[in-house]
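I trust your eye. Have a critical look at both lines of this record:
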Amino acid sequence: MAEEHGGTRGRRPWRGRILVLVGLLAVAFTLRTAVTSVPALTDRIAGEMFLPSWLVGILGMLPTALFGVAGLLTPLLMRAWSVEAIAVAAMAAAAAGQAVRSAAPGTGVFLAGSALALAGMGAGNVVLPPMVRKYFPDRVGLLTALYVTVINVGTTVPPLLAVPVADAAGWRASLGWWAAVNVLAVLPWLTVWPARRGRASDRGAGRAAGAAAASPAYAAADGALPPRAVVRPGHSPAAWALALLFGCTSLNTYTMFAWLPSIVGGAGLDAAAAGFQLSLFAGLGLPLSLAVPVLAARLRNPFPVVAFGVATFAAGYLGLALAPDTATWLWSTLAGLGPATFPLALVLVNLRTRSHQAAGAVSGFAQGVGYVVACAGPLAAGLLHDATGAWTASFVFLGLTLAVLGVSGWVISRPHFIDDHPGVVVRRGAAAPPPPADGRDHDGRSFSADRRRR
């Protein structure tokens, strides 16, 4: 990648891309606000509308379910809309959904507004990797690290503000004001809004051209597909491996979010201590999101990151299963290092595709399938615990998913491109376009030779 080779040094590589960067990070910040702004206010919301415990459980499953549905449907929109248009539509849907649920007169409207907001944020999840690929192909690792870190910040801020704002202005204001943040995230994209596909006046392309003038590596890096080309990731075993890597990582992460306090609470920790363990587990995502994408972009084969994630997850689970009341902070820390494979999966969307169109299709496929898989984690772990009266069976189940994670990580980490697999890229009414020179990365360098020195 050019970002590791210094090909753009001294050439003003950010020229023409500052507003895109602002827009990309603004979208990233909003992608979890509808998820984490609610839990601290559930009791207050239930005081005004019908929210029994089973309905709260459904509300907890909505994020992964809607993210999965949006992941599968958004690539279909990409065949007709630009990634910029989808980003604007996603933020508009998120803003509308958050506004609707904050004013909801009853449970049905509240759930409908939540679903609309989460669907918009799910579409935003999908378009971020192809936007990085389209505008920053020479800095994939750095930009992925930045936007995943901002997602983590956007996950952390809403629960911190939820109760103080609700105390001052009510729970409806506490939920509803996030709609304004979604609207603000739209504004930078209006300045790079592309014209209809195929027109020479595409303003987004004009800004990309400005970046290309500043960075020769940028100009050569994103080999855009023909307008009528269709990308079908499901035809590639590597795309399925990426989906399982993403899905098993999310499954384990969301299961810990749901059940870690109960696991350590059952071992004798009080509520405050159990909450600290969950914060410790979740807080490790921030340094991981900064380090892993940059490291992965420099590695020919990033499987060591996968092995690290599987090993730390397994060690944390083993400690929580056998001695949850002894050195609990150590087990929570080890388990919290396991999700290193989450930012890895996101950066591999771009490192294993040749164009932003392919990255968009692969992003939607991996996240769509992955979030559907993730839905099963908290539910299965809870059912196994209820059936056996202990957490051992749940940890065995999670251990099996780690085996799948390791195998899928090994497959997708090998240096190759998903869109080079037969049948993945098809041009309507014509044979599939031939791929670029075999075995070469986004900068035209050979996978097999150019990085051996590393």
Q: What stands out?
A: The beta strands are 229-231, 425-427. The mean pLDDT is 82.
